[in-house]
Amino acid sequence: MGSAGRTPFEVRKDHFVSFATLTFNSDYICGVETVNASLKDQLLFIKGTTAPSSIVEAIQSTGRDAILRGSGTSNSAAVCILETHSTVISDKVRGLARMVQVSPTLTLVDLTIQGLAPGTYNATVRETGDISEGAASTGGLWEALKSKIERRHEVQQQPRGHFGVVTVGPDGRGGAFTDQPVAIWELIGRSLVVSKQKEGPFQREDSDTLVGVIARSAGVWDNDKTVCSCSGKNVWEERKEQKSNGML
Hints:
The protein is of the alpha+beta class. It contains 5 helices and 14 strands. The strands form 2 sheets. Strands 5, 6, 7, 8, 10, 11, 12, 13 and 14 form a 9-stranded antiparallel β-sheet that branches. It has a 4-stranded antiparallel β-sheet with strand order 2-3-1-4. The longest helix is centred in the C-terminal third of the chain and has 10 residues, at 235-244.
């Protein structure tokens, strides 16, 4: 699984010491290599091969919380908020995909989903970013035609738009941490679909089909805001609001 990455997390001051101690415990969070802390900035810089979602989940299991403040270098990271477009579902946000490019042709994808029926789901990048009709308007699987042509020449491989499968357990939650042979710039503006189907067509009213547009996100040194300019809320107030809306 790729080389170790360095990721910053913001932590409340009253949780800082216990969080740092917990994170240093490699028996609790596997894959953590080093932790550098700045109490002044309330930041922990964690280097390792562990998925960022796994670190946040481990911290949340202790009754604390953390905010991811960037991944990778500038212009090498992306994020996709996954929602259902079913009109009968009120809490539409059901997942999040974080993507970090670690080499010119390799990107790590950290995908987490919740609130879905148990089963096996496909994560696919689509040709377009049109989600006006949910997943139904996103077009075909990215590079599916190219893959078919290569198969005619006996090159057996999945289209680069197929990001693998995710198993959702009885609790409605699932996740995957994979590496994909793509660059971030190729993904920006396209849509990501999580569905039991791989090729489609997708149904807008299927509450177990999620979709979102892939957008750039902050690199390690690119996100130093403490107050959102649009809402006037600090990052922890925003975090509380996002969690109430289903954000992971």
